[in-house]
Amino acid sequence: MTAMPPAFMPPSKDRQTDRLIPTFDASAREGPSGPLSGIRVLDLSAYIAGPYGCTLLADQGADVIKVEPPNGDNLRAYPSTLEGENRAFLGVNRSKRGLVLDLKTDIDRAVLLDLVDKADVLVHNFRPGVAERLGIGHAQLEQRNPRLIYCAVTGYGEEGPLRGKAGYDQVLQAMTGMCTLQGKPHAPELTYGSPVDYYAAALVAAGTASALFERERSGRGQYVGVSLLRSALTMQSARLIQAEGEALDIARDMRSGGITGLHPTAAGHLYLSANTPRFWDALCELVGLDDLASNPRYDTVRKRAEHAGEIIPLLRERLKTRTALEWEQTFGDAVPCSAARAIEEMFDHPQVIAEGMISSIPHPVLGEYRGVTRSIKFSRTPGPVPFAAPLFENTAVRNAKKTE
User: Fold this and answer.
1) For residue range 305-322, what is the model confidence (pLDDT) as tens digits?
2) Annotated catalytic residue 263
3) Hey, is 61 helix, strand or coil?
4) Kind of pairing, strands 19-24 and 8-14?
5) Does the pTM exceed 0.70?
6) Is the C or the N end of the chain the one with fewer CB within 10 Å?
7) Which helix or strand (DSSP H or E) is residue 20 part of?
8) Which residues make Cβ contacts (< 8 Å) with residue 389, sequence separation at least 6?
């Protein structure tokens, strides 16, 4: 089931200022309602964390209006091989309507404030202090709309010496130890795919939904703060534990041993996880190394890590007798594993298809494209049909601020 973006309704005239106010038809979304249907979100954020957090809200039925500056969201300028569109922008901003406003001008700011009066949520990722200078800080908007949930995404939080510094996913990866733990000793490596941004997006959606739930009890909105620094550290909660008097050498506990990891095969690489006794025994049996399973030198994860130099050559010699896909079939449910695939293979993976994770979405420039849609399943309120991210040139009320 596919849908085109709901259209803007004809602008209405503000009699006091004699200007046009954009009106949105939230009811135009096709398909069943979602748990957040009827909630209006103003997305003033750019890049990934804030915008994708708003997309997760749109997946749940929220009416999301993406407000971009005259130059557009910076993500639109990222490299893309799509003709006339940007792959990253499409993936991050589905199911939103678009509006272009220059918030440095009084008339455009007034248009936004009119939307704020009727909004439930506003999300931005301005550096601390910028929103206040624009006249749209939390305290300023709270006076206009006391029920507004105001979510600010920052790099480093609202306080401290780095509060005003711009934060980016890979900068925070480097800062918080991810790169060091990801790479080999003395060779830090980045994790591509913006994990810090996407986890922050999940926190945006979760924090906003919690604030909306609390508003049902109190009748009041509130400030919701999400930072990339908090996101990066939250992702590593299992690592950031230090016992009293313990030396700061946390990394020593972070490896599962030489068995767990990627291994070469006759064709391709295979990821294996065999930490429990059941999985270890099954692995040894299926690769024909039964004597390893019965050897007391290797009967715990710690022992296998200590003797990885003995085990891995034997294991890899056996793994090279078949391809990664063949071993994946052989191990089945007996050993947690997966062949290392290219992301493009996920479009047609039978499990992805069965779960309905990919939808075909009409697009006025591309004709149609396939992409990820609903990330959460709701049995009774699955949410409306997803539609394409807004075109920058087709943000229908680009000139609605002008008088007739």
Assistant:
1) 889 999 999 999 999 999
2) yes
3) coil
4) antiparallel
5) yes
6) C
7) strand 19-24
8) 66, 89, 90, 92, 93, 94, 95, 96, 98
